[in-house]
Amino acid sequence: MRRTERPVSALPQTCPVNTKLTVVFVVESIVHSKFTNSNAYKWWVVLMLWFICFFNYADRQAIYAVFPKLKEEFGFDKVQLGLIGSAFMWVYAAGAPLAGFIGDRVRRKSLILGGCLFWSFITVVTAWCSKLWHFVTVRALEGFGETFYFPASMSVLSDYHNRNTRSRAMSFHQSSVYVGTILGSWLGAWFAETLGWRIGFYFFGFAGIMLALVLYKLLREPNRGESENSASLTSLSPLSLRETLHVIFHTPVVPLLMCAFVCANFVATIFLTWTPTFLVEKFGFKLTTAGLSGTVFIHLASAFSVPVAGMLADYLMKKFDGGRMFVQALGLIVGAFFVFLVGNTSDTTTLILSMTVFGLCKGFYDSGIFASLYDSIEPRARSTAAGLMNTVGWGGGALGPLFVGIASKYGSKPTEVQNMSDAIAWCGAVYIIGSVLMLAAMYFFWRRQKQKKHSEKYKWGQ
Fold this sequence. Notes:
462 residues; mainly alpha; Growth Hormone, Chain: A; 20 helices
């Protein structure tokens, strides 16, 4: 079948000819590689999802950077701001099982791009808010739109990348989380100080809408189990709810991974929500500087460490079962000390160093969140498993911002800043608990794989 090419003259005449040629060349190159080089296209998929995930996090992060402006304009206290922060996470968590269940049964491309259109529109609507219930409502709707993304996108990536490249692909995709968090916070604060806090939401919202429309023609839906060459899976009907839950919970591995995710997310949501305010009130940073510094040291460090951790995890998986989980546990154990330091120090240099090392450790944990999960889950249940993972992780994590807000207002220390410092320092203990859970999951996974290999060896011996 011949492929008709769109002439350069069909592009808008306001574009320079060189620009038209460049756009056509790039688009044609991507489409060509899509059909002629499946090995290359699976990495194009990672890149396309990287940009969607960037806006997924930039849109959700921008609100936290303008908390001081909302306090100034509307008189919100820390408990009210904590409620705004938690509203997103509660709905995001509550909707995740539904999102995952649907993701195992419908075209995931539609969920990814449709979700991007929806949450981007809600980001625009955020600029119209003027009352507490307005902010709580739009943040809840934002959480509902974004909850469909990760179960669907992680399932798609797992169908393009097998166990040999899965950690690398997912860790590179994970780096968009950190870049989106950094730029969402910094640009949100910059717009707030220069043009008004509402402008940032218009910027991120309309940019996300344009991206979803562009990628509609470029993103291809893979077959379930494609990366494992599981031709038999593509011909099977979806699992029932009971069968899906059995696949997920028939060993202790997945529940332990989910509980560890609660611990990691509890700490992460506190840093996402409160770091800019913490830097303004305790260290006297200006709002724009706090919006940038509150994210860049942690998340840029994570962006650098997560690909390294992904490569290490793929390498260790070839050496011993549970290698990915070991890398995650290591990140939590080392990171706990530096989380404690962030809350306790009064020295700016120590603060920045501690946030940076914490970010490096966070990248080690984040590199295997879904890759470790999918080592124990068959392709037909992966979206549901990711949805439940997000429900448990973000449902528990949503308590973090509210915990710090309540602790800051009602703690035993003379000032709210001192109470906030203590609350952040205690997060180090939460990381320790998470590391113990990860090591337990690694043990049960290793034992299960050993039993499976023994059974296969016995069967062949017969």
